[in-house]
Amino acid sequence: MERLFGTDGIRGIPGEYPLTDGMIFKLAKAVACLLLCQKNQKEPAGRGLTVVVGKDTRLGGRRMEVVFLNGITSYGIDVLLSGTIPTAGLAFLTKELKADLGVMISASHNRAEENGIKLFSASGYKLPGSQEDRIEELIFNNFRDSDLSSYACGAIRRIEDVQKRYTGFIKSAAPRLELDGFKLVVDCAYGALSDIAPLILKELGAEVISINDQSDGMNINLNCGALHPENIAQLVVSHKADAGFCFDADGDRLILVDKQGNILDGDYIMAIIGGYLLGKNKLPKRTLVTTVMSNYGLHKAIEDAGGRVISTDVGDRCVVEACLKNNLIFGGEQSGHIVFLDHSTTGDALITCLQILKVMKETGKPLSELSQCMRPLPQVLINIKVKEKKPIAAMPRVSEVISCSQSRLKGNGRLLVRYSGTESVARIMVEGENQNFIESIGNSVAKAITEEIG
């Protein structure tokens, strides 16, 4: 069966498959069917169903929202609208308001012209793959309206105190944190944190220089934010700021810049906070969860601090699932998705921001010093746009180059080749002791893939 859901929801260009109005309407109907069937099986008769719907600042989000609302309310399901909100805020509201489902309209770090839909369960976690599979099955099997009981049209209401609820929740993750004396540069990526992030940091006492916080709906992620932290590095230095914080459009990624202008990705964040928690004996089982994309330097830093690392597949949902399975609370991705399950059900860049500032405040150390806990191995990341996601095993030439490259590494490095779960992109990661050598490895694999499906 054709796949709609990737590693983080459904993504594409609005108006084009799979985000045509018709497909979004079918998705809403399938979600309604899933919820109504669950209600009939588990819930007392007569209890209404409620869905919370939010979006980031993309121009196409409003139209997608309207189409989805028409579909979901036609089956008697009520909707609470949050308006513009970060993804983690939508997950929080879904759980806080005891809704049956959360729907986030966002394509996260993707280009402004793209968009997507992520679904959250009533508990605030991303919808399990089994339920995404069920939704796809309903869509492609073209279930009939007669398969559902007749319901009156659902109501649509706006949540009036969204910002107050969410800011209170964020602050509760770092109680008694005071940031007087801190000067911070914040890059909001023209996204969902444009108002909230500067507000919270100022309320905690910091001097804040906020940039890229006036969205026109089409500048989201454009040469800014977590994808381009190099663009604020000079600002941090020139303003003599203590740190720079680079968010992405829906506020679930964070990349840091220290006062010297050095860029610190998610691996550094996990090394700093992981080491801090280990030192406080507050990391359950002394274990951190990350993905196969994380640098081996992170593993070494955690091991040197007396902990251990569990690696999982790419995607913050995989990190969360591994944490839940192993009764752990902390993990993340090199890309900047960081998860604190003792505070939130999904990656929240603002919570991560405050936790980093908490470590800086308590230790009295700048980021440039804290980051010395990790020495990353040289790493090469190459992204190649592809026409199709053809299985690697079905491309003999590519498989041969990969096998040869792994032999050349001879156990002194590693090679990972995978397709993005959210874009038509092949990703190549090579890690080893010598930069020139791993670049040659990455380029040879990239050439083979380009010749085959680029």
Structure description:
The protein has 454 residues and is an alpha/beta fold. The protein is 37% helix and 20% strand. The strands form four sheets. A six-stranded mixed beta sheet has the order 1-5-4-2-3-6, with helices on both faces. Strands 8-7-9-10-11 form a five-stranded mixed beta sheet, with helices on both faces. The chain has a four-stranded mixed beta sheet with strand order 13-12-14-15, with helices on both faces. Helix 8 (266-279) runs parallel beside helix 9 (296-304). The mean pLDDT is 94.
DSSP helix fraction: 25-40%
Straight-line N-to-C gap: 24 Å
What is the SS-derived class? alpha/beta
Largest sheet: 6 strands, mixed
Give a brief outline of the structure.
The chain is an alpha/beta fold and 454 residues long. The protein has 14 helices and 18 strands.
